[in-house]
Amino acid sequence: MLLVGEAGVGKELYARYLHNNSAHKEGPFVDVAVGSIAPENSAVEFFGKECAGKVYPGLLERAHKGTLFLGEIGGMDKETQLRLLSALESSSFLRVGGSEAVRVDTRVIASTRIPLDEEVKMGRFRQDLYFLLNEVSLEIPPLRNHSEDVPGLLSFYVDFFVNQDKLAFRRFFHGGAKFFYATTLGAATSEN
């Protein structure tokens, strides 16, 4: 599954929601910021390693029976894309330094803020991995495109913080919601 949207729209939140409402909900949710993994360390990070009789599980293995969320997958280097594609297609891989295949049952949800179809055309993203991840695609619009949700969100978060942090209840009136929209979302809209 591929979640598409600009930075800050809540792609990880959607991924967690999907995980928590799936057959894999009892398994782990492993969140990976793809851009934070150096290409030279990607094999160990994703597939783990075996060294001196010790096993160090990688991200795919830690997500076994759960969900692996690959945040901003557009930043992944081509060699890692190829390795990941192979592991996803076969549901197995070799740890670095290992000799036995490790089988995994992992659901993968990836996110991107850049159009991956254009990255494919430019040769920066593998077409086969794109098709594998893009089997189901969900575009997540920014809040400025559905401002009618602001009052409901304000109400939800007021209730959340009143109950969670025992803060005093506060009521937002329509004028307050309009002010919030004008100073935050409206400003963001006028910048675009």
Which bin fits the share of residues in helices?
Answer: 40-55%
Radius of gyration, whole Å: 20 Å
Strand order of the largest sheet: 2-5-8-1-9
Which sequence of SSEs, written as H and E, runs from N to C? Answer: EHEHEEHEHEEEHHEHH
- The name of the CATH topology of the largest domain is Rossmann fold
Structural shape = globular
**Roughly how many Å apart are the termini?**
28 Å
> Mean pLDDT, nearest integer?
88
If you had to describe this structure to a student in words, what would you say it looks like?
The protein has helices spanning 11-20, 42-47, 59-62, 78-90, 116-121, 127-133, 150-164, 174-191; strands at 2-4, 29-33, 49-51, 54-56, 67-71, 92-94, 101-103, 107-112, 137-139. The two termini are 28 Å apart. The chain is 41% helix and 18% strand. The strands form 3 sheets. The protein has a 5-stranded parallel sheet with strand order 2-5-8-1-9. A two-stranded antiparallel sheet has the order 3-4. The longest helix has 18 residues, at 174-191. The chain is an alpha/beta fold and 192 residues long. It is built from 8 helices and 9 strands.
